[in-house]
Amino acid sequence: MTNAMACPVNHGFNPLGDDYVADPYPILSGVRDETPAFYAQSIDMWVITRFDDIQAALMDPATFSAAVGQRPVFPLTEEAQSIIKAGFRAYPVMSDCDPPRHTRIRRHNQKGFSARRISVLEPKVWAKATELVDAIEPGVVDLVSALTYPLPAYMIFTFIGFPDEDMDMLKSWCGNRIAFSWGRPSADEQQVIANNMVNYWRYCEEFVAKRLAEPVDDFTSDLIRIHQADPESLSVPDITNVAYGLSFAGHETTTSFTGNAVRRLLANREQWDDLCADRSLIPQAVEEVLRYDSSIPAWRRITTKAVTVGGVDIPANAKILLLLGAANRDPKHFEAAETFDIHRTDVRKHLAFGQGIHYCIGAALARMEARVALDLFAQRAPGMRMVEEQDFDFPANISFRGPRKLLVHWPE
Ligand code: HEM
């Protein structure tokens, strides 16, 4: 250690503990106020807590490699390992990939996610969201199953090009995937998830082969055309990996985020009423939820060499957890940081989508989907109320956060 800071080992910090899973924010703020970095025994990771240090780590991919982004936190059973080994041929292409491969593959994907391309998708998002809202009956409704789950799933699958008739099968293979790499699934769960991952992977291989034989008008076919023009710069397995990765990254992140948004807005009734009275407030409400209660409150890196963070020495090859949720409430950067306020003016600086070379490629899509969902809710059900005293159930894992169910009273 290079300074006289409190011992950097925190024996109590456990992102899989019940209190953290129920509400991580008091714990995130506590550790951030106490120390810039510490070692957490429960997950065998070094944890970085403050905005400036997290931003610096995100901007320094040579020291903070992304390679561990999807690696299981805890060792897998031999059975799960052998299922994966036999049938799952995925390799890093974006979120868990470092330059130069990351640079090459991201460049080809970036175009598909430009603000212009996303704005072309917006009418389709409105159409699907309207269809889902039309189907809601007055009374107690779970908004996750009614809209926040099916909307992003449908949009990302359609964007990639997966046919409508496969959606239910694909969704069933996604179940509990988060637990595999970010949680602590039981041996039985590991086996089920591993088999689903293999099924999903094979499906992506076959799907990309079909598009290779006959490209159409979708994102995967755009990648196929790039491959055909220059096979060296994007291979067919690269494309399969992108399809596999996007179908996961573009899905539950946004489901959880939209659930968090509705929950926070209804809990702050006067802000929900403001938003319903003036729907032009929706984009900044979306930013405030990203800051205050994002669906990815923590993300991972691994150090390539020894580094000092806020005066705390961290060794080479240290697994790192960046507490984005703590950074986004860092009082050095946000006034009244612990207060949810859709009217705040300093909100855009948040780190909910990361920063630098791995900045979330789906940020514009996620923002747009959440905005459309909130707009429709505000138009159709301004009087909607949260069902009181419901037990919110959040999945136990180190990175993803959103309620599994969100019960509201949907008005007549
Ligand atoms: C509100 C919803 C979302 C949140 C909070 C979120 C957050 C994040 C974060 C924190 C990262 C990691 C940045 C880093 O490692 O530095 C990331 C990366 C990524 N996200 Fe998102 N994301 C969301 C939605 C989406 C959507 C809808 C898609 C796809 C359609 C997507 C695709 C990706 C991909 C591919 C990466 C890796 C990019 C790279 O490494 O170059 N995300 N996202």
Describe the protein's architecture and organization.
This protein has one domain: Cytochrome p450. The strands form three sheets. It has a six-stranded mixed beta sheet with strand order 1-2-3-9-6-4, with helices on one face. A three-stranded antiparallel beta sheet has the order 5-11-10. The protein has a two-stranded antiparallel sheet with strand order 7-8. The chain is globular. A hairpin with a 4-residue loop joins β2 and β3. α4 runs parallel beside α11 and α14 packs across α18. With 412 residues, it is α+β, with helices and mostly antiparallel strands. The longest helix has 27 residues. The chain has 18 helices and eleven strands. Protoporphyrin IX containing FE binds next to α13, α14 and α18.
Strand order of the largest sheet: 1-2-3-9-6-4
The appropriate CATH architecture is Orthogonal Bundle
Structural class: alpha+beta
Poorly predicted runs:
none
Shape, principal axes of CA atoms: globular
The overall average pLDDT, rounded, is 95
Secondary-structure element pattern, one letter each: EHHEEHEHHHEHHHHHHHHHHEEEEHHEE
CATH superfamily caption: Cytochrome P450
Number of domains: 1
C-alpha end-to-end distance:
62 Å
Helical percentage: 40-55%
Indicate the proportion of strand residues.
5-15%
Write the layout of secondary structure elements.
Elements: E1 9-10, H1 18-22, H2 25-34, E2 37-40, E3 45-48, H3 51-58, E4 64-65, H4 78-87, H5 101-110, H6 115-134, E5 139-142, H7 143-148, H8 150-160, H9 167-174, H10 177-182, H11 187-213, H12 219-229, H13 236-249, H14 252-267, H15 269-277, H16 282-293, E6 299-303, E7 307-309, E8 312-314, E9 319-322, H17 324-327, H18 363-380, E10 385-386, E11 407-410
Parallel strand pairs: 1-2, 3-9
Antiparallel strand pairs: 2-3, 4-6, 5-11, 6-9, 7-8, 10-11
The structure holds protoporphyrin IX containing FE (HEM).
